[in-house]
Design goal:
164 residues, alpha+beta, two-stranded antiparallel ribbon, 5 strands, 38% helix
Amino acid sequence: MTEFENKSLAASPIKALCWFRKVDDTFVALNKTDNRQSLLDHLNTQNNRIQFTMEQECDKTIPFLDVLISKRNDKLLTSVYRKPTHSGQYVNYPSNQPNRIKRGIISTLTKRAIQISSINLQEEINHLKTAFTPPKTATHWWETTGSLRRAGGLTPSATEAPHI
């Protein structure tokens, strides 16, 4: 694919300001005066088995992978992107998953927010806190389980809910 890109872009009448690809997703920035459709048509005539589609920015934003890229005052700003179909659920809290898995999910999503977000970081952290605050039934379940384990002589640290 790299060879295809290099040859196609070298022969293109439109020169991209930037071209980033991750597997089958490509982020391209062009000059305001460049004809986007001309570049798309050019790429799609290079190999009939490789066809591109184009998603254009809407309200000066565009999602790319799990990043929402926003344009403000000729600067690109980034924040975490979740699809509209995202349910907000990551793992069923009282599930039989080990606590280290639950803590790992929280840790990974927090690191992702810190690495990706040039704006709205606190908003994303608040989303994670809300998403990982156990519902009352889970809190009760943890308390009950902790009480049962303590009664059985086991230490409570292995059964308590992780804290954010």
